[in-house]
Structure to design on (169 residues):
């Protein structure tokens, strides 16, 4: 799949078929995530791969839109490292780029994935920090639910020419 097709046909996938995803497959997706752009190339991210079904179930107890985790093969928590970021304002931006890279790579490999928002919701951040035992300088940013899927990618037409402005607003 070329990159343009991948961008157009990636969709959030919340239904999985139960086929396991290996740790090597997930590490490979993380590798693509780590190729994302970041401010001053600081790459201020960490990735926690979660296979533990009990952990995944616990996340559904505090995250209101994460029910699909009970069917997921695994999840990946993308975290920002405040001690590595260019300035405190940049780690969420960098982690967003890493999250999108992960989603596109998963789609490119034929896996289904969906971005579950953690940052900037305080209650999800603090619940995730305590569940994952995160050090103070590590901030949970996004959780990606992942699995093999039978749901095909499809194009959703979102092009809005009226949102394009030439030279000035
Ligand atoms: C910051 C952010 C937070 C999101 N949080 C959730 C979530 O908690 N649960 C969920 O099912 N989808 C979540 N999504 C996925 C969006 O619902 C999805 O991207 C959007 O509906 C567009 O659909 P698409 O990804 O298929 O193009 C989130 C997406 C983003 C970018």
């Amino acid at each position: 799949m070329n990159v343009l097709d991948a961008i157009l046909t990636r969709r959030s996938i919340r239904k999985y078929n139960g086929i396991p995803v290996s740790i090597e497959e997930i590490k490979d997706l993380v590798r693509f995530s780590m190729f994302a752009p970041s401010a001053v190339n600081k790459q201020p991210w960490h990735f926690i791969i979660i296979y533990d079904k009990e952990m995944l179930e616990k996340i559904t107890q505090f995250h209101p839109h994460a029910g699909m985790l009970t069917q997921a093969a695994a999840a990946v928590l993308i975290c920002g490292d405040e001690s590595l970021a260019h300035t405190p304002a940049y780690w969420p931006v960098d982690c967003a780029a890493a999250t999108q890279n992960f989603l596109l790579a998963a789609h490119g490999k034929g896996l289904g994935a969906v971005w579950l928002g953690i940052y900037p919701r305080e209650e999800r951040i603090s619940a995730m920090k305590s569940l994952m035992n995160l050090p103070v300088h590590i901030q949970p940013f996004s959780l990606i639910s992942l699995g093999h899927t039978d749901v095909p990618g499809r194009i959703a037409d979102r092009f809005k020419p009226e949102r394009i402005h030439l030279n000035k607003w």
